[in-house]
Design a protein that fits this description.
The protein has about 240 residues and is of the alpha+beta class. About 45% of the residues lie in helices and about 20% in strands.
């Protein structure tokens, strides 16, 4: 019977963007901080705790930076705050949940080979563009036509349109061109260009919507507070 190794609070098994492996990662250093704010010429505790974790991948021995935020209470170390934290650097491979699942799945598959096969990565990013066009109900036809249809209907800036075209061309190179070998630099450019397009179409609009809702809640809270002072400032809405 195979024995499952139990992880210590200073270990986790996660995807490493450096080497593309789901690997054991070891905590090297933990840093806590609790920001303060000025109130009546004194510094008061904000009630927020920020934890930063410097770890290393046991497969490729490269550093990773994780982050965990908590409000009002500092998580118990026995619950392994390190294992609950999220990757901050290098840029997490996973796209936010606001991005359609089919696009996220294509990008996640590409991310797994980002560090090992630039040509295959380019092909999979091209497929992610196809998935994006499907989600946007783009007109049928070649990928170039579909991307320009998405760009026109979403009023995308010209620079993003050109980024999408570069991604399409690099995808073609990865699939058909044996003379031009794609490099790690090409992979980073593709990753940045694709995320810029996703930011414009999905992440930015969702973030704007949430901030508008939070601002409306803050405005309503301010009006209500003028009529009847709040007893507990902890109930005040916050922009997340």
């Amino acid at each position: 019977m195979t024995q499952v190794r139990e992880l210590s609070p200073d270990q986790r098994v996660s995807f490493c963007p450096h080497c593309g492996n789901i690997s054991l990662q070891r905590l090297l250093h933990r840093h806590y901080t609790s920001p303060k704010y000025r109130e009546d010429d004194t510094l008061a505790e904000s009630g927020e705790f920020h934890q930063f974790f410097l770890a290393s991948c046991e497969t490729c021995d490269t550093p990773l930076l994780y982050y965990l935020h908590s409000l009002n209470t500092l998580p118990d170390g026995s619950t392994s705050a390190f294992q609950q934290s999220t990757l901050e650097w290098p840029t997490p491979a996973e796209l936010p949940s606001v991005v359609p699942d089919v696009v996220r799945a294509c990008h996640a598959e590409a991310a797994q080979i980002k560090g090992t096969s630039p040509a295959a990565y380019a092909v999979l990013i091209r497929r992610a563009l196809e998935a994006l066009c499907d989600d946007q109900n783009a007109a049928k036809g070649p990928l170039a036509t579909r991307l320009h249809d998405v760009a026109f209907r979403n009023e995308m800036p010209r620079v993003l349109v050109e980024m999408s075209d570069v991604l399409r061309l690099l995808g073609n190179v990865g699939a058909h061109n044996d003379k031009w070998k794609l490099s790690e630099h090409d992979v980073e450019v593709m990753d940045q260009f694709f995320k810029a397009i996703v930011e414009y179409l999905y992440i930015g609009p969702d973030r704007l919507r949430r901030y508008r809702e939070a601002l409306q809640a803050l405005t309503k809270h301010s009006v209500d507070s003028e009529a009847e002072p709040a007893d507990d400032d902890a109930q005040r809405p916050r922009i997340q």
